[in-house]
Design brief:
Length: about 300
């Protein structure tokens, strides 16, 4: 089983407009609401692929109740830790004219020490093949919260900034920053050198999202660059979560890195074509699996 953890879950609200113009009134063409947060999105993708997955998340207030109801409707196996605060909302505005995606993310409710302890206990009670910890830490969580959650087994950490650095002593098997997040935490402009720095600090492998240029993986067994066959436009908000889903599935199956990366790039593109974060276009995914290019980078290129 794969278990995903979302300490700062959300209700995702997505508005589709013709174009987003500052200081203007907009009429949404479509509004969609459902449970979100990075770990929830990862679980949703894995569920679509038929994987054995369970999500653990926080939920509170009327918004948390809406999150719980939607997870049940979607058929996702979920274990929700009740909290006193109101679950946050995230707002995504999609523009059909230029394909732009604008996000507004609330910080989330503050967790008490007791609530955090329950979340940790629920996670440690499980013995998954792979543990995925994703997203921001909520207010009130300890700075090294992710290091406390990881627990020493096969794990993936997908967060940024101080939470990423403080999580590295937990020795995650994989961390997945994008290029900007990687630069932020290391100060290094060369992504390979920056990835090696995170490995030196405790990460087993580093998979870097390069946007349209695909993925860079720096691991103990080698360095690879995986690229898509074509550049896609659409809703990119769930692309990184789809990458994490592919990584988790590959680790659980003990697949070699080139195969894991091929699936990750294909699934990322399939997520861009999905209408909401957590959705994937399965037809594109299966086509692209045969077309993704994965190239090993010899030492002299690094």
């Amino acid at each position: 089983m794969i278990v995903t953890v979302t300490p700062n879950a959300a209700l995702d609200v997505t508005y589709t407009v013709d174009s987003l113009v500052p200081d203007a009134v907009h009429r949404a063409r479509d509004v969609r609401r459902r449970a979100g947060g990075k770990g929830v999105n990862v679980a949703r993708v894995l569920h679509t692929l038929g994987a054995d997955v369970r999500l653990i998340a926080t939920a509170g207030g009327a918004t948390g109740a809406e999150v719980a109801a939607e997870l049940g409707t979607a058929g996702l196996a979920a274990e929700l830790v009740p909290i006193a605060g109101e679950t946050r909302r995230t707002t995504t505005v999609l523009s059909t004219v230029d394909g732009s995606v604008t996000l507004l993310n609330e910080p989330g409710p503050e967790l008490s020490a007791a609530e955090w302890a329950v979340l940790v206990e629920r996670v440690h009670r499980r013995a998954p093949d792979v543990l995925v910890c994703s997203g921001s830490l909520p207010p009130g969580a300890p700075a090294d919260g992710y290091a406390r959650l990881l627990g020493g087994g096969l794990s993936i950490l997908d967060t940024s900034g101080a939470a990423l650095l403080a999580g590295l002593p937990g020795r995650p098997a994989v961390v997945k920053p994008n290029a900007e997040e990687l630069h932020e935490v290391t100060g290094l402009t060369d992504p390979v050198a920056a990835a090696r720095e995170l490995r030196r600090r405790g990460a087993g492998a580093v998979v870097v999202s390069l946007g349209a240029d695909g993925l860079l993986a720096v691991t103990a067994s080698g360095t690879w660059h995986a690229t898509p066959s074509t550049v896609l436009t659409g809703n990119s908000t769930g692309a990184g979560d789809a990458v994490v889903a592919a990584l988790a599935l590959g680790l659980s199956r003990r697949e070699p890195w080139p195969e894991i990366l091929r699936r990750a790039v294909a699934l990322s593109g399939a997520a861009v074509l999905g209408p909401l974060a957590g959705d994937v276009d399965l037809a594109h995914y299966h086509r692209e699996l045969e077309l993704v290019a994965v190239r090993a980078r010899p030492e002299q290129e690094l």
